[in-house]
Specification:
The protein has about 130 residues and is mostly helical. The chain has 2 domains: about 5-80, Multidrug-efflux Transporter Regulator, Chain: A, Domain 2 (Orthogonal Bundle), CATH 1.10.1660.10; about 90-125. It has helices at about 5-10, 15-20, 25-35, 50-65, 70-80, 95-110, 120, and strands at about 10-15, 40, 45-50. Strands 1-3-2 form a 3-stranded antiparallel beta sheet. A hairpin with a 5-residue loop joins β2 and β3. It is elongated, with a radius of gyration of 27 Å. About 10% of the residues are buried. The model has no long low-confidence stretch (mean pLDDT about 85).
C-alpha cells in the first residue's frame, strides 16, 4: 500500500483529531460547513478523518493565527488545487527587432523621462 493511499484513508474519529490539532469539535464541524475539509462518513454518519484532513486542519489553524480569514484560506486552497494559469506565450524577438525596439525607446527617452536609462540602452547599438 502506497504512502499516499495510507494518508487518504479515513481512520481517525473526531475525538483523536481534536487531540492532534487542539481544535474543538465545533471548530472542525464549522470548517467542514465552510467546505475547507471533507471528512468521510461511516454508515452511522460519523465523521472519519484521514491524515491529509489533519494536515489541512493544521494549515487552517496556522493561517488563522496569521490573521487570514476563512475566505482567504479558501482562496489559498483553491489556488493550490487549480493549475496556475499558463503565461501567455512570449514572442521571441530577433536581434534586429530588439535593436529597433531599443532605438525607438532611446529616441522617445530624449523627449520624456524613460524607465530605462539611456546609458544602458546605448550599449546595444553598434
Amino acid at each position: 500500500m502506497s504512502q499516499e493511499v495510507r494518508r487518504t484513508m479515513p481512520i481517525l474519529p473526531i475525538s483523536i483529531v481534536m487531540e492532534l490539532t487542539s481544535l474543538t469539535a465545533r471548530q472542525i464541524r464549522h470548517y467542514e460547513d465552510q467546505q475547507l475539509i471533507t471528512p468521510a462518513r461511516t454508515s452511522g454518519n460519523k465523521r472519519m478523518f484521514s491524515l491529509n484532513d489533519v494536515d489541512r486542519l493544521l494549515e487552517i489553524k496556522e493561517y488563522l493565527e496569521q490573521g487570514i480569514n476563512l475566505a482567504g484560506i479558501r482562496k489559498i486552497f483553491d489556488m493550490q488545487v487549480q493549475p496556475p494559469l499558463a503565461a501567455p506565450e512570449m514572442k521571441q524577438m530577433t536581434d534586429e527587432e530588439l535593436r529597433d525596439f531599443l532605438r525607438i525607446e532611446m529616441m522617445n527617452s530624449q523627449s520624456r523621462r524613460s524607465s530605462v536609462r539611456q546609458g544602458d540602452l546605448s550599449r546595444f547599438y553598434h
